[in-house]
Amino acid sequence: MKFSSVKKAALCMAVASLGLAGMPAGAAEPGITDSTIRIGLFSPLSGSGMAYGFDVVNAAKMYYDKVNKEGGIHGRKIELVVEDTRCNANDLVAAVKKLVEQDHVFLLNGGSCSAAVVAAREYVERAKVPFLMLNASGDGALYPPSKYIYGAFSISQYAVGGSMVEFAVQHLKGKKIGYINHDDAYGGWNLTTAEFQAKQHDGVSLSVQSVNPAINDVTAPMLKVRAANPDVLLLTTYARPAALIIKKAHELGWNKPIVLAVTGTADLAQLVENVGGPAALKNFYIQDVVAGLPSDPKMKWVYDMYKEYYPDLAAKPGHPQSYMPYGLPPAMTVVQALKDAGPEPTREKVLAALQHFKLDTGVMASPVEFTPDDHAAQKSAIYLKFDGQHKELISGAFKSAWTYQPKQ
Predict the structure, then answer these.
(1) In b/e form, how buried is each residue of 120-151, taking b as 16+ CB within 10 angstroms?
(2) With 80 as the cut, is the pLDDT of residue 9 above it?
(3) What is the pLDDT of residues 296-314, one digit of tens each?
(4) Order of strands across the sheet that contains 131-132
């Protein structure tokens, strides 16, 4: 019996359909095999931004390894492909493209620098790949919410300003609050919620100075702050401008409280050196987003795990780096979402699991929580009094009240 070309084509299509019907649901998904789930992990591992990501990646790696040793996820082991993004937008986008197009990862877990992460939004949405950040705030990629992107596991940059104002009002009893931020989108995000938070309290006002992230001389903005005579000064800048401001404040005889956002405290020892010593930190507070100090018993398991996995590194000065614990909650979220997606995971199932998600990691100041309208994981922060040598935990967590409102 002879077949026409049309009949042959129809037969081939039928056979192919039967073959696909017999395949596991996850088999057609990139990065999934019967025994593995491939994840793209990336962050700055070198360069000037290394402190933001090096030990964060180490923390994520050790958690994924722990899961593998415990049997994996529904019998599949996690396979990592790691890339260095150097805190640079071009490098991060290139890394993401490589991970998706060449390494064929199932999902992305990475990013420690917000501006770099935001640059990847367009590609991620076009590629339709789930992207869970590491410790980047990434507000520009989170608002308005994208189906594929989740982040702010450390804290949303929007929430940074609101939480700081709440701390200044509730703990420091400030009414007139000095506020220095960056004159870019990053600074605008935290200022939006700082202003919102101030309006929640009668008689509270902000006196704002916005500075360029590359500023070299902070004399002018600090003289304006001093002239405004606020009760407390909040700094939401990066580490270098923050050190210049704190040093200048000390030179000008400033003795009122200064509170520094978590984004300016990657290396406390370096901060002390950059401000000229502990004398500049006599009335100084630091925002943090973990559940407690490294000495806190509830954080012991985190640091014990780090010492177990990286004994040589842990023995070196400066390790683990301040941001190390931040790598755990995103990895824990990835694992839980994969578990929730079931034994035959697809990208769509993982994304559906993340739409209504809450997980108390025990690591951060508040649980990871996502809704369909908000993909920023954390809104609360803790605060430490720091004198250049010793840290004292202030009781309680301080939450930002701002919530994203979709445009009608």
Answers:
(1) bbeebeebebbbbbbbbbbbbbbbebbebbbb
(2) no
(3) 999 999 999 999 999 999 9
(4) 77-84, 36-43, 107-110, 131-132, 149-150
The token pair that represents 85 in the structure block:
């993004």
Each residue of 319-334: b (16+ CB within 10 Å) or e?
bbbbbbbbbbbbbbbb
Which of 165-169, 291-295, 298-302, 362-366 is predicted least confidently? 291-295
Q: What does pTM read for this prediction?
A: 0.84
Identity of residue 137: S
380 - beta bridge partners?
A: 399
Q: Scan for tokens 């990065």, then name that residue.
A: 31
Helix (H, G, I), strand (E, B) or coil at 129: coil
Confidence of residue 201 (pLDDT cuts 50, 70, 90): very high
C-alpha to C-alpha distances, 151 to 199, 206, 330, nearest whole angstrom? 27, 28, 8
The gap between the terminal CA atoms of the chain, to the nearest Å, is: 64
Per the listing, tokens 């630091």 go with: 286
